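call fold(seq) -> tokens
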Amino acid sequence: MEVVLLEDIKGLGTRGDVCVVRDGYAMNCLIPQKKAAEKTGEQGKNIAAQKAAQKEQHAEKIKKESAIFERIPSEITIPATVNEQDTLFQAVTAETLIQHLKEQGIDALVSWFPPVAIKETGTHVITINCGDTKKPLTVTVAKST
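ret:
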């Protein structure tokens, strides 16, 4: 029996996929639990159109993210409060870097940054990545006056 998945099912497919399963599995498990619906001719056409629209939206989203990612400068300077030993009162984290970029008008995503906790002044290099694109980011932590 051909069914249209209404949610992701491990080992079977993702939401919107048309799968061939045994009649008993479809009638006793998938359809009663509203995890799938029986495929009709009209439904198959709608699903194909929805999948194409989702792929187009996903490609557009990646294109927008890449454009934002390319706007990130290769160097940024973060002012920080330090004590006499030049250690920071508060670590510079990925969230701090993102906030600094937002102040410059760049809406960076948290997923692009690795977990980082810079606790000393000076120059630090981290690698940020957006999908397959990687970029070194030089972070200079300077004493604030």
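The helical segments are 23-30, 41-71, 94-103.
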